[in-house]
Structure formats: structure tokens, C-alpha cells
Amino acid sequence: MSPEYAMRGKFSEKSDVYSFGVLMLEIVSGQKNNGIDHPERALSLVGYAWELWREGRGLQLIDSTLVESHSQHQILRCIHVGLLCVQELAMDRPTMSDVISMLANETWPLPIPKHVAYSTKRNLVEESSHKEEESCSTSMTITEMDPR
Questions:
Q1: In which domain, by residue range, is 52 found?
Q2: CA–CA dist 141, 113 (Å, integer)
Q3: CATH number of domain containing 86
Q4: pTM beyond 0.85
Q5: Are 100 and 21 in contact (CB under 8 A)?
Q6: Distance (Å, whole) CA 13 – CA 17
Q7: Which residue ranges are recorded for the region named Disordered (predicted)?
Q8: pLDDT tens, position by position, 128-139
Q9: Residue 138 lies inside a defined structural domain of this protein
Q10: Which helix (DSSP H) or strand (DSSP E) does residue 77 occupy?
Q11: Which among 144, 24, 19, 121 is positioned nearest to 82, based on CA atoms?
Q12: Could you give phi then psi for residue 120, rounded to 5 degrees?
């Protein structure tokens, strides 16, 4: 869930970009976003990927089953794009068309990711629990047509 939706109930195309980035990191790592156990603190997958990336240890995130069938360069590029998608500020995230270009064209220059959202599991829980109570009600009528 994108931070702008969790905290303010705002949803946009950039929220989808955020979700896509999380999905990419889950595929590359073989782990769920809430499934990382770190000895020093509880990190989300996004936070763990960000920490490894900043320390130049991005290869440690990669699921061992991918190493045999894909080049490390391709997988690291996927991690890089995933981190661009999960940046904290929606305006810093690429558009989906840019994401597709980044993945399809290996010569497409990748900007350096800025700070990612939800670095720790605690932040994710706190931010979503401090969100103001909002509700939305939508009514819809569905008419089904049957032939004679």
C-alpha cells in the first residue's frame, strides 16, 4: 500500500507504481514484503532492499533460483527499478511507461533512488494506524439482460 494512500487516503497512478515496485522486489527476492527478519530491527522487504542497495550489497537480495537463469546485471536492474517505484514521495516515482522503458531497454539511464517508504515494519504499522478514519460508500445498480 502506497504511503499516500495509507496516510491520507489518496490514490493515484503513482500508487500503482508503488505496488508494482513492491511486487518486483518480492519476485526478485522470493520473499513477501512483510517476511524479512533482520537481527537488529524489523525491516520490511522494501527497507531491507533499500539497506542492501545503499551498502552496495544488492546481490544478497536475489533469490537463489533466479541466479542460475538470469544475469546478475538484469536482476540488479530490476531491483534498481523496483526501488525507484517505491520511493517515499509519489512525485519521485517514475511513470509506468518509464518503468516499462527502463525494463525493456538496458541502455535507458536509471536515476539514483531516493529514500524509500516504509523502511521498517514498525513504520508501516504506525503510519497506517495513525491514519484518520475515513470511509467511502459507493452504490451501484447492476442490470442483467436475459434473452427471451
A1: 3-129
A2: 44
A3: 1.10.510.10
A4: no
A5: no
A6: 7
A7: 127-148
A8: 444 444 444 445
A9: no
A10: helix 72-85
A11: 24
A12: -120, 160
